[in-house]
């Protein structure tokens, strides 16, 4: 198709070149000033032959290379456009993958945060329970110590009361029964037995 077009253009150019001198010669005889611009037949034929040879050489050797370069450039541009489209599609796919990765990372981060909150709540509950247990243990030990102190104070008071009672009784009994030592001892034993019952 391209060769037919180039051949048609060449024939049209050759016909216009051939008919131009005849018209120019016909007009040249009538007007004297135009003779300078119009070549003579003896000059025109060799110029036409040289033109046709140059045109043939150009159409045979140069024009195919020009067409080849233009076709190669066209193919290169088409390939570049296809590659650009492929790159664009690949970039869109990579962007979608990146968006999916970011969404997954956000989901995992929220899961980690929720898990950390749950662990923190469990740890807080454990610490509170341990603190309550320790407080109850301290309270129980304090109550045991208070009970022990109470028992010691009671024992001490009982002992002191017993000693005072014995001293009072001894002095009372000693005054009344100064001469009867056996009765005095028996009264003391009785009193001590009573005090022993109180301590038990």
From TrEMBL:
Localization of this protein: Cell membrane; Endomembrane system
Sample GO molecular function, one term: proton-transporting ATPase activity, rotational mechanism
Xref: InterPro entries: ATP_synth_b/b'su_bac/chlpt (IPR002146), ATP_synth_F0_bsu_bac (IPR005864), ATP_synthase_B_chain (IPR050059)
Transmembrane segments: 36-58
Keyword Membrane attached: yes
GO CC, alphabetical: endomembrane system; plasma membrane; proton-transporting ATP synthase complex
Superkingdom assignment: Bacteria
First and last residue of the signal peptide: 1-26
Keywords, comma-separated and alphabetical: ATP synthesis, Cell membrane, CF(0), Hydrogen ion transport, Ion transport, Membrane, Signal, Transmembrane, Transmembrane helix, Transport
Presence of keyword Zinc-finger: no
Main location, first listed in the record: membrane
Annotated membrane topology: Single-pass membrane protein
Subunit note: F-type ATPases have 2 components, F(1) - the catalytic core - and F(0) - the membrane proton channel. F(1) has five subunits: alpha(3), beta(3), gamma(1), delta(1), epsilon(1). F(0) has three main subunits: a(1), b(2) and c(10-14). The alpha and beta chains form an alternating ring which encloses part of the gamma chain. F(1) is attached to F(0) by a central stalk formed by the gamma and epsilon chains, while a peripheral stalk is formed by the delta and b chains.
Family statement drawn from the similarity comment of this UniProt entry: Belongs to the ATPase B chain family.
Xref: HAMAP family: ATP_synth_b_bprime
Function, in words: F(1)F(0) ATP synthase produces ATP from ADP in the presence of a proton or sodium gradient. F-type ATPases consist of two structural domains, F(1) containing the extramembraneous catalytic core and F(0) containing the membrane proton channel, linked together by a central stalk and a peripheral stalk. During catalysis, ATP synthesis in the catalytic domain of F(1) is coupled via a rotary mechanism of the central stalk subunits to proton translocation.
Name of the protein in question: ATP synthase subunit b
Organism in which the protein naturally occurs: Collinsella intestinalis
Highest classification ranks of the organism: Bacteria, Bacillati, Actinomycetota, Coriobacteriia, Coriobacteriales
